[in-house]
Design brief:
heterohexamer, A: alpha+beta, 27% helix, B: alpha+beta, 10-stranded antiparallel sheet, binds FE2/S2 (inorganic) cluster, binds fe (iii) ion
Chain lengths: 184, 456, 184, 184, 456, 456
């Protein structure tokens, strides 16, 4: 949260205590949601996702500082993930199909959600940035770590939050793994 | 990781190499997927010798635009110069070897080495040497110290290729009718451009296992069953027992996969643009868009019926009806780097473009619903090529062997039509073994097989 | 914390603020305890452990989805750790013996305790789940990372907590390290 | 936070709620500061640093328990970092020079700040210990992870904190990377 | 990690291999622990040729139960079929090589390949090929394309072993009296079963360093001093200067470690069950439970006195008085994967079972109080086998050489009794060098040494 | 990481090795930076054969103080014994090979092996064997089983070196005038000590690329431009076109870098201590402190003018005017471990010491403002030595070739004065190729080139 954002939140009339409680709620939601993925509870996870979700991971490139503007691909260009809810449901259906060979034996993942920073609250929506580390191990020796920044938008609903946007900015360029069959 | 399977490899004689694939029986020696000495020969005799895909002209719009690619494991800079020409430069400074570019792409005025500041023009000429008159006392012949350029750089339909061998035949001839048909498929709906963003990932498989898989329509039904269940595509539609069409060309070029019948193609040729689109939507053909009549010029009267997968030997797969290219870069005998290029007609209407992008994003690439499962099979198959007992077994490319016949179309294009089979794979490995056995281009030309005719 | 658990906690009449303060206390305890291990203060760490502790790490196996029930070994079967307090004291005694060669030179560990989720409070006991990453480096080049889920039970005592149960569910199956001479 | 420290903080008359709010503030500062580094906003980061900062990373050695006193080099001996503000500004100037080849193409870093433990509050100064994991990837395949303990001193100023001291105790001995061109 | 010690290895002649261990002096060439070419020979001549431990029958209770194991680095599936027979199948599809199983264990109806769906029965027969009549036009001989099975699979006391060599002698003969005594030790207290949960970890040492260590009762006192201090066991009790008993058998089989005196054994043989248990509890013998008289049938009159460590050549250690097995799987010249099986008598009373489990969990395995320290010594010793100067030094297996005499018991069982020594290690390396030097079973049988007699 | 460039390496003949560097043209074969077989030869013929820097006497103040170092990749213990002598012991137990020390430094009474407890004195003698009279029955000749010591350990000015070859010439002769001048530079301001804390990091480059770079004052301007911008040093000041001075000695010894003119040196020699300090501060000379007149004794009348970089062949760089040493340890053909020693005069006043420490901390080491950029160039240059096409290109060490003349000073010291050039690099690789080609010391002495005279 840079100075400007902090000002926005303060302008939003949140006291320090209110911000701390909001932080707690948001963190718990993010941890719960991560735990569902790690527990392979994909259906339950889908239930936490809004109908209009945008789940997106652009492609990052190694570029020089003078070309830094092209470090990430833009919306509408190619991406690793560019999913709406229908596509996420397809992914879950595939995982449940009984014939998703790359996930049977299933991989074992652990989502580390760290450095949670609420960036903006606008109406029912809260934008939050985290540093993530998705650790995954498969079979008896394959290990992958995906690391980066995630910008999530949560929408407050009766009894909790829903995930309305997840933009994943990976730190890696070339992906050094056979697949990305896991959700971030 | 513990890994004791890096065997002590023998040197290979030419006849041993040729024996690695037995065209008569279809058995392939599994060591082609693991042997380190064979791999070194491939770098020399397949990659440095052959024509390697570099980029499409649309990726390098302006002078100074560059894109890094590989010839085997040698990094090259593909760059458009001030004259608009696309050059392919070995990415290593002639002074001490340092890389000129460490980015994947970008724009440059010239290439300055970060070690001592030697400066090369966009055509590779050495144009600046700090201390030339002082430290070097003027005694340095810059004209002999330009970046090494590919021996030949040529293009077809805007696709650029390069070879390190001056003896290589012209690209046009190397592609031959089959290769040109493949690139024609990409351009069948008009002038194209590469969408920004090339997916790249590394799979722990031998590069040839990834290549031969593109001819392999047999695996679709089983490997990709879950993608079918999820509903993103219909495996059955593309593997109808008798809808296949394989085209084999010189130098190992090939196309394999579903094809339309001549009857259907005749019907389509009579349709208006609107009718064609409507017909495609109806789902009766396994493709996003049916080709306009004009495509016949690019693909030939027979080729135009192909809904399959061209491979430009050795390692460029054309897929999704020409809307994606996948380059398979060798990274040692047991690793392959995959690069996915997405290509759309320049004037494609937004909804079509979005539909293409949706398929491109969600079928292939490391997170793609199809590709996820392929990698698993490929890496396990590569692993089996190393075990002491398991590498002694062959790979059984037996399907359809001796049961089909090469047909010759009116225009001379040949094809094998009918069942899903392993004709493409056999042709690929047969050609590959000849490439690797031959010491130079002359020997390759003298010894390579012509594409089969008659019963295959 | 899934919906059910949250309900349990809410039923326990904890307000959001109370839950946030409990979270803070629990996190600080877990961080303190981790820091003791990383500082090689094994005796001090033992002092935070109850007499009836169960410290357990079952064996995980790569299995297909149809055999997922056998992913972990069960209590009473073989395990990597299956320690009571006496056994933990033995481990500490070994480390103090002056002849524990695998830990002399001592390894250097870092316990990352992340995604802390209080699952249940029942009387004096609090059950908490975390995602852990135990990083260890030894000698000049050996590096190991053990990653997984931990389910801890804390018992509230005068002036703080004590660790009454630690069940460690590693994400790895085959252990790719020469030893596990470190406490989790 | 060991028992003694806790006592210090309690003696400082902070209620649990006050400590929780302070924790929140401190964490947010550390996350913000980390995010600036990860966003390559080096100038903005420098603005968060006091004029009298001591930024120090001693050298760690693999030693036996009997020589454990020499595990780290001492202040005044050799170190990997031993920077005052002028030196940090030099580092930033270098990064901005347009010719810092090892950082052009720039590396991609992610600072994981975990297990935040406030150790002491003395006047305007707060000493805080964290477990850190600095992940960095460069070009298309280089990956480094630096892990360890960090002891930071924050000084409260109008509108927030400033970083007055950062002592970095790496877990690694021999550094297995071509360079450390990143700030910790 | 930086590692320049992957030397360029020479090929090895048979006499050079035999010279690697000098039985006269006890000096061992350190390169046996690092050389990559020797390692490749081991995969062929020790592992594929020899009998490898697969599993215990209790692990595969029902038809379809399977357990993955290795012969060298080749993965095999051990599976019980519908007839109740246990089969050992090479885990690689005969079509293109893909793995059939990627799990470590489980239950299957048949093995379906995830690549193209070939389906194999639990006995390895190819029972289904998608597209057999269509794509293959019926032209595929399924009977020739079943999974490769081990050349022989045989069991003794419920323990299954497999070899890839049809020339191997029967398992019973291969084990010989010494090997059978070793397995007898496991079953000395009645019928056994494997407890669920096999600990597996990878140590950066050569597999033979792990193996020879099991005969090494010399290291216990010093290496495991801290475990002694912690109180989990008493190092002094098992290394009494004169309580050792070593048995050497054909093919490299051996048992080493403490033994009971004949006098004590005679006394025990006269005890009732209750007395025996009480005596064991008294701590006068280094074992959890003393064997019932019936054990003599399984272990022989001399063997029954052994409280030591059998090794079934090449790599199965029997420990904890027969309650754990440790399999040492080669993973390249410098890595070994250790698998710990825990075995209990089926009818063991709960408190005993708990005591066994407690020892099994806390002594061995990566977190075990003993094993922690072993790995460190083994990896450093392996490292020293690679350095340019350090690999020139030998390993000094000198202890007791020429000072002991092989004794022959009434029943013909032989043993070397007395001090802790390095007889077991010498016999292991001597046998190993003969295995690796011999090109085939016939040559091995013709050239291998018989177990020593007389002064050793 | 995927990496297929571990080529199958041929064995090397002596004349092929000599041809790797062409002294006439300055072209160097890039394979010297990547070939695995050459690397194995280096371990034998450069490192085990040559004199390797071990430590400075100040690091081992008391009996039992030890410091681990390497001869090639073999670990050695440098330790001061009770008599005050510094010994160099191979860190591998004579019993089974285990390492005696696993720490980097420390204090020991003796070295006890953690495997079986063999105990070695600080001089390497085997002084204790558990079970000597019992297990071994007294039959073990301890006098033959001491730790292997370096064949020779000698020192100059407190700097200790060791060689594994008994045929090596005395250290004094091996260093020759040029090497001694280099160490003299370190001690030019009085008796020195090593500051606690040696920075260590591993760079993915061949060790020789790191070494030749120290003679390379050409790269300073461009590689280190950003450090110049940051203001930590002034690249232009040290690369004045005509201020360079290179000294070449027997066995590959060399010094390269800026030098003071004879005129300036004469002026300095007349200054008082205070004047010298003032003059250094004025920034007119690129050094922290100007040497006192007494330095002439250590460095010679010509050598004393050098402000450059000595390299003690093969791998010890002296830098920062003698205030840092950097040891480059080979770690396979593509990795190098760098160790930075910081050295200060014992009686250096605190402010000076702080200034030295500030430069030492901030210029070099992995976080140093200079070193950061060097690593990048080195690793990319190493990479280019492996590519199939890029390794065929030479490295162009052409600068100044044939344009300079070796000058002989009154005291017989020779130097090449003038422009920045590549004389040092050429001498290094020429000597290196002779070292690697020669089978033993006798052959090396018979075939090695004398330092050049006349036109170079
Ligand atoms: S290596 Fe490129 S300028 Fe020297
Ligand atoms: S590889 Fe198994 S069915 Fe094709
Ligand atoms: S290996 Fe050192 S005492 Fe045995
Ligand atoms: Fe596929
Ligand atoms: Fe042991
Ligand atoms: Fe430099």
């Amino acid at each position: 949260m840079d100075g400007e954002t902090r000002t926005r939140l303060q302008a939003a009339q949140l006291s320090l205590a209110e911000r701390a409680l909001l932080q707690f709620e948001v963190e718990q939601f993010l941890y719960d949601e991560a735990a569902l993925l790690d527990a392979r509870e994909y259906r339950a996870w889908l239930a936490l996702v809004t109908d209009d979700i945008h789940y997106w991971m652009p492609i990052r490139r190694t570029v020089t500082l003078s070309d830094i503007g092209m470090e990430f691909t833009k919306p509408g260009d190619m991406a690793y993930f560019d999913d709406d809810r229908a596509m996420l449901e397809m992914r879950v259906k595939k995982l449940e199909a009984g014939s998703a060979w790359s996930e049977d034996p299933p991989s074992r993942s652990r989502h580390f959600v760290s450095n949670v920073r609420i960036q903006e609250t606008a109406g029912a929506e809260i934008t939050v940035e985290v540093a993530f580390h998705l650790y995954r191990t498969r079979l008896n020796s394959e290990v992958s770590s995906w690391v980066g920044r995630r910008v999530d938008t949560l929408r407050r609903v009766e009894g909790g939050f829903r995930l309305a946007r997840r933009h994943i900015f990976l730190d890696q360029t070339v992906i050094h793994t056979t697949n990305m069959s896991t959700l971030f | 990781m513990a890994d004791g399977t890096q065997a002590i490899e023998p040197a290979w004689e030419a006849d041993e190499i040729r024996a690695l694939f037995d065209a008569k029986t279809g058995w392939l020696d599994r060591r082609v997927h693991s042997d380190a000495a064979l791999y070194q020969l491939e770098l020399e005799r397949v990659f440095a010798r052959g024509w390697n895909f570099m980029c499409h002209e649309s990726q390098l719009k302006n002078a100074g635009d560059y894109f890094i690619n590989y010839i085997g494991e040698d990094q090259v800079i593909c760059v458009r110069d001030e004259e608009g020409q696309i050059n392919v430069l070995l990415n290593t400074c002639r002074h001490r070897g340092n890389a000129l570019c460490r980015a994947e792409q970008g724009r440059a005025k010239s290439f300055v080495c970060s070690y001592h500041g030697w400066n090369y023009g966009l055509d590779g000429r050495l144009i600046g040497v700090p201390g030339q008159s002082t430290y070097y006392r003027g005694d340095i012949d810059k004209s002999r110290l330009g970046l090494v350029t590919a021996a030949k750089v040529e293009s077809y339909l805007g696709f650029y290729f390069a070879t390190m061998s001056a003896d290589a035949p012209p690209l046009y001839d190397f592609l031959g009718d089959v290769g040109r048909t493949g690139l024609g498929m990409v351009c069948a709906n008009g002038e194209v451009e590469v969408v920004d963003g090339i997916q790249k990932n590394i799979i722990d498989c031998n590069w040839k296992i990834a290549v031969d898989n593109l001819f392999d329509w047999y695996h679709v039904m089983y490997s990709h069953a879950s993608a079918g269940t999820a509903g993103i595509f219909d495996p059955a539609a593309v593997t109808q027992p008798k809808s296949q069409m394989v085209m084999l060309g010189d130098y190992g070029q090939a196309i394999g996969g579903p094809g339309l019948s001549k009857e259907l193609q005749d019907k389509i040729d009579l349709m208006s643009d609107e009718e064609r689109i409507e017909f495609a939507r109806s789902g009766q053909v396994p493709t996003l868009r049916i080709r306009p009549r004009a495509a016949t010029e690019l693909m030939g009267q027979e080729g135009v019926r192909s809904m399959g997968h061209p491979n430009l030997f050795p390692n460029l797969w054309i897929t999704l009806g020409g809307q994606q290219l996948c380059l398979r870069l060798p990274r040692g005998p047991r690793h392959t780097e995959l690069w996915w290029f997405t290509i759309v007609p320049k004037d494609m209407p937004a909804p079509y473009r979005q539909a293409v992008m949706r398929m491109a994003t969600h079928l292939f690439g490391p997170a793609g619903l199809l590709e996820q499962d392929d990698g698993e099979n490929w890496s396990q198959s590569t692993r089996a090529a190393s075990g002491f007992s398991s590498r002694k077994l062959g790979a059984a490319l037996l399907m359809g062997l001796g049961h089909d016949e090469v047909q010759v179309g009116e225009n001379g294009q040949t094809s094998i039509e009918g069942y899903v089979g392993e004709h493409g794979q056999r042709w690929f490995y047969r050609s590959w073994s000849e490439w690797v056995a031959a010491r130079d281009w002359a020997e390759l030309e003298a010894t390579r097989s012509a594409p089969p005719t008659g019963v295959v």
